[in-house]
Amino acid sequence: MSLNKILSIAGKPGLFKLLTQTRSGFVAESLLDGKKVTVSFKNNVSVLSEIAIYTLEEEVPLKDVFEKIKEKEEGGKTAVSHKDDKIKLEEYLFEVLPNYDEDRVYASDIKKIVQWYNLLHEHGITEYADVEETEEASKEKE
Length: 142
Prior knowledge:
It comes from Arenibacter arenosicollis. This is DUF5606 domain-containing protein. InterPro entries: BVU_3817-like_C_sf, BVU_3817_N_sf, DUF5606, DUF6852. Helix content is 35%, strand content 21%. The C terminus is likely disordered.
């Protein structure tokens, strides 16, 4: 499953898997407890594939940051917890993404990145590229 089916819903903890669309919104399933929720279009919802992290040069897509974490951790969970202190979280992100913009990326953002990565890892979602990107990459190799 790619990140374009994984959602963050403002005011609700964790991440959600998009199940289906309805007339007034959509139905999603929580990755934390498996409960299904109906979300209206009025809610503030972010699709993980659309989120990017500020660096000094450009914005780096969240999937690329997740890939760098995966590389650093050799496919395992993060060495830090989202509950660790601000300094430890900032040092961790600096190891993963050395040129991140410290003025625009807050400790709360780093907590979410670490928490989301670990939550996706727990659910076996470790391939972050879109299906289309994967197909294009395999065509280029041929």
